[in-house]
Amino acid sequence: xxxxxxxxxxxxxxxxxxxxxxxxxxxxxxxxxxxxxxxxxxxxxxxxxxxxxxxxxxxxxxxxxxxxxxxxxxxxxxxxxxxxxxxxx
Amino acid sequence: xxxxxxxxxxxxxxxxxxxxxxxxxxxxxxxxxxxxxxxxxxxxxxxxxxxxxxxxxxxxxxxxxxxxxxxxxxxxxxxxxxxxxxxxxxxxxxxxxxxxxxxxxxxxxxxxxxxxxxxxxxxxxxxxxxxxxxxxxxxxxxxxxxxxxxxxxxxxxxxxxxxxxxxxxxxxxxxxxxxxxxxxxxxxxxxxxxxxxxxxxxxxxxxxxxxxxxxxxxxxxxxxxxxxxxxxxxxxxxxxxxxxxxxxxxxxxxx
Lengths: 89, 255
Hints:
- The complex is a heterodimer.
- Chain A is mainly alpha-helical.
- Chain A has helices spanning about 5-40, 45-65.
- By secondary structure, chain B is α+β, with helices and mostly antiparallel strands.
- Chain B has two domains: about 5-120; about 125-245, Alpha-Beta Plaits (2-Layer Sandwich), CATH 3.30.70.
- Chain B has nine helices and eight strands.
- Chain B has helices at about 50, 55-60, 65-85, 100-105, 110-120, 135, 150-185, 195-200, 220-230; strands at about 5-15, 30-35, 40-45, 85-95, 120-130, 185-190, 205-215, 235-240.
- In chain B, strand 2 and strand 3 (about 40-45) form a beta hairpin.
- Chain B is elongated and about 80 Å long.
- The termini of chain B are close together.
- The mean pLDDT of chain B is about 85.
- The interface of A and B includes residues 34, 38, 55 and 87 of A.
């Protein structure tokens, strides 16, 4: 992703960057929730609440992405030798 | 300092028929030989305003120039390697002049002889293997008690697990492919797997191997490659190549 000096492109790239970070955090929280679920750290009610929240967040992400004309693969930063920021889907 | 340099393509042992007549190298230059110390270097005289260190730094970013130059370089190496054991030298290895090349041949004489003995009568084959992860991804989660939120998390968990498992089995599969291929080869080398942008294929590459194979085991090797295909794995065979992966003597130009 390159941030260009043209204002419109810049706005688009910034939105993309922000959405990328939100998606990264969402996936991290989801992994953490799964780990705690596997360790039986959570009650059934907590699991249900977490699951619902994460599910709604994912739906919201999909919606926002559609509005900006972005696909999930657009939300992935290529970190060169480190690979990509998010796991390839 | 003169305004031409000596571009080195490859080094071979001395042979009686070492004249590269009509062979055209990089930038349309004629290829000639420099015999020294029982070895023969295949070289061209190149203009330093194109092949000097500074212009090269710029030219290397010009994909069209790079493509043409690499094509010409490989063509020379392949032509030479067709007839005799050949140690190819990396792209754009440029020396100040013929004397620098002679010095290289004298100083690295034993290294070159070792490498040439190792590759005599053998050729390099490239094998790339790709795995279709979608074929392995079942993604079927067990129906669970609890509400939609729990079901969502369970589904994600199953998805992650099956992906991890798919990767683990892909790595094991790559290991097994490499072992099988190596058993038919004299020497083998695993390069870093290329990412999809470079390989031009959507499926992840699990093996990027180079194998040095005796000329008379060529058919056996090809057959082994054929047999490795299947179960979601596609295997690509390229070659025979000049033995680029087995002749790295770290020869660097001084131009």
